[in-house]
Amino acid sequence: MNTTETSVWAPQAWVQGRWQNQVLLHIDAQGHWGDVQANVATPPPGTTVLAGPVLPGLVNAHSHAFQRAFAGLAERRETSSDTFWSWRDRMYGVAQRITPAQLRAVAAHLYLELLRGGYTQVCEFHYLQHAPDGRPYDDPYTLAWAVADAAADIGMGLTLLPVLYERAGFQQPQLRDDQRRFAMTATQVWAAHQAFAASGRPLLNAGVAIHSLRAAASDSIHALRQLAEHMVGPLHIHVAEQQAEVDDCLQATGQRPLQWLAHGGLLDPRWQLVHATQSTPDEIEAVARSGAGVVICPSTEANLGDGLCDLPGWLAAGVPISLGSDSHVTRDAAEELRWLDYGQRLQHRQRNIAAAPDQGQPATAHRLWQRCQDGGAQAAGLSRWGLQAGARADALVLDTSAPALLGIPLERLLDAWVFSSPSTPCRDVMVAGRWVVRGHQHAMQSRIAREFAQVMVDLWGP
Q1: What is residue 67's three-state secondary structure?
Q2: How far apart are CA 226 and CA 330, in angstroms?
Q3: pLDDT of residue 218
Q4: Of the residues 35, 184, 240, 423, which has the fewest C-beta atoms closer than 10 A?
Q5: Are residues 41 and 78 in the same domain?
């Protein structure tokens, strides 16, 4: 466990967008893939032979780690209706109370779940900044370091995104009292980015984020865009998630949120549009021209009643797509992919919506996996990703002894892993050339579970 390898051999591996046989993968001293060779019938001496087919890790492109402590605790209502906005008010109860130590314990538990669920990198959309009374900690990045420490404990790659957050709404120039821990100006966001980028922590990189158009003034958005003019990392924003947000934006600016971003000349390939649930064909075309990506969070969008995105439109336009688990009601990449297509099937009353046989891509899981693999790298600010030379040496070993995968032929294995529920956790997980999960076990899992359980008792117990 947590040991470094120099070469591994897989009976099958997902290379260049398809399954290939007898794949030998070398790992360099920096924890990146060196040579990747298929059809190597006999593993060289000293090579570790893997126990099953190998996939590259996926990027989880949208996470609010502290919300893992709220998952499953908002599934009842005491009034005539329950919406995203009423859920948000209840979620703020966690945001107001959680301490740095509790956040670290919650994030560690979450990140271990994400590793087992197929993710090896997470983009943390970090807007929980200050002490419960709204005052900065002595170290203003105390809560950010708690998240980073949790990722380091687990062995998870982390893209840390400090968030511009300065008002409660288009017509509310100040934050609400229950948002006091979130306050951050454009200058403060940029200073945080600089601190994270210069930290020298392994497996940590940084970008910036804007909470939403309703939560940041136009001048502040443009100021952050200017500060980040030469930034290499990504820029994320919640956008067009709820129809009420679109309506408010129209009233305040005369434009829809995606329209406002595109017409303002803000978008470029670093931008990641989180949710983008409410879109028009013209907006999709404008996003495609800019090179920006979209981050879709199927389980959270379903849980919050956001609606369904125009997945066929985003796919047809060639817009980079990635997955996020957002509020973490689901921590499983296969389930997110499953519901990404299932939602479309329910809406359109057809099957395999995401497949594209006319483009030589008849398998829904294959097409979605590859699009999310490529789009996730862009969302995380990683120039190379997957089982290819120069990419970080991350790998998922599937457990073909699991009931859902027993006897499945190789060419249908990814189909079964995604669409034959319940999902099968990854048997082994490698990050940067080191095993962090081996035989379904993590070295710290007992302690992590114990500490998380205690946090939940402290937050929710009598």
Answers
A1: helix
A2: 36
A3: 97
A4: 35
A5: no
Q: Give the pLDDT score at 1.
A: 46
pTM, 2 dp: 0.97
Distance CA(125)–CA(106), nearest Å, equals 15
| AA identity, residue 309 | C
Co-location of 40 and 78 in the same domain: no
Residue labelled with tokens 């380091």: 152
Peptide bond into 422 cis (omega under 30): yes
Q: Containing domain of residue 27, as a range?
A: 7-56+388-443
DSSP, collapsed to helix, strand or coil, labels residue 417 as helix
Max CA-CA distance within the chain? 68
Residue 204 lies in a domain: yes
* 176: CATH: 3.20.20.140
Could you tell me the mean pLDDT of each successive run of 10 residues in the chain, 462 residues long?
80 96 97 96 96 98 97 91 91 94 98 98 98 97 98 98 97 95 98 98 98 98 97 97 96 98 97 98 98 98 96 98 98 97 97 97 97 98 97 98 95 96 94 97 97 97 80
Catalytic residues: 275, 326
233: DSSP letter: S
Same domain? For 168 and 244 the reply is: yes
184: phi then psi, degrees, rounded to nearest 5: -160, 125
Q: Is residue 361 part of a domain?
A: no
Element (H, E) at 111: helix 100-116
* Sign of the CA dihedral running 29, 31, 37, 43: positive
Taking each helix axis from N to C terminus, what angle separates 186-197 and 142-154, rounded to the nearest 10 degrees? 30
